[in-house]
Give the backbone structure.
Amino acid sequence: MSLQSIVFDKEEGKLSILNQLLLPDVSLYEEINTVQDAWDAIKNMKTRGAPAIAIVGALSIAVELKKRNFLSLSELSSFVNESFSYLQSARPTAVNITEAAKRFSEITQGLVERIKDPKKACDILYKNLYEMLQEDISTNTSIGRNGAEHILTQYSGGDVTILTHCNTGSLACAGYGTALGVIRSLQEKGRLKQVYCTETRPYNQGSRLTAYELVTEGIPGTLICDSMAACLMKERHVSAVVVGADRVVANGDTANKIGTYQLAVVARYHGIPFYIAAPFTTIDFSISSGSEIVIEERKKEEMICFAGKRIAPEGINCWNPAFDVTPGELITGGIITERGVFTPTELINQKK
Ligand code: MRU
């Protein structure tokens, strides 16, 4: 059984998301009726993960398109562009929603030039928006297959053990997952010995979400605290580290969940290949180096409280960056995409 984080009824134009703040205890779907609802859900991390942020944002626009009556193409075009621009402001680091904004701005502009009837243009846009769901699943299936094949050709030691970080599975996407898609594909090929997942402090995407996906889907998994990763690599066999990304830039530097960078450093020390798995919508060729990526900082309550209980003294200062940047040179296994697996230096040749 695969978890579904985003449910969209295309006939009715109704969107629901699985509230990820309540997992793993409670599975509650909540309706997203407006772009504002989507912005709130993204900001509060009821929905999270770079692809899911873009898809929920885009589908919230579809929900409004279904209900509204646009009197002109320029009104429709302004609504789409302004909505995307507002949605991008909810969380700055993941680039997928910016890519979606660019794509839909071009589609809308093309419609404005070709089509006279706003209703017809609205219907075409609506269809393009909901097709993002299926596109994401097929992209992730390709990422999974490419990554699993690459790891297996590099590795001749039997079944593989993977270490992953944060949550990159069905919950972070429309389905299947990116890094977790690679793990899923290894499992489908009967070649996965087991996966270690970090708990991923402070928000615990690993223990609350990845561990939940592994258990629900019968994938052999073991949870570790973030501080155990170096010891794990030394004491137990890890064939490869595979994580997702929020933004990969032109030189291969990659922003991903805080803690990714230290895993890459430790993997390098232990000679363990380190992979990023991400769709092309996560690659930002407009930025040349990771130092230019805007890193979101989140509120200190995520660090000083756990499940509503205070776990650090009042008055302590906190620094809570949600992401860090792993230099391309530490991505020793490669960047796994739907188009193939590339070294950071090969990536730039993939720019269209
Ligand atoms: O803060 P989050 O939970 O949105 O961060 C998610 C990650 O860092 C994921 O690794 C990344 O978005 C890839 S999800 C396929």
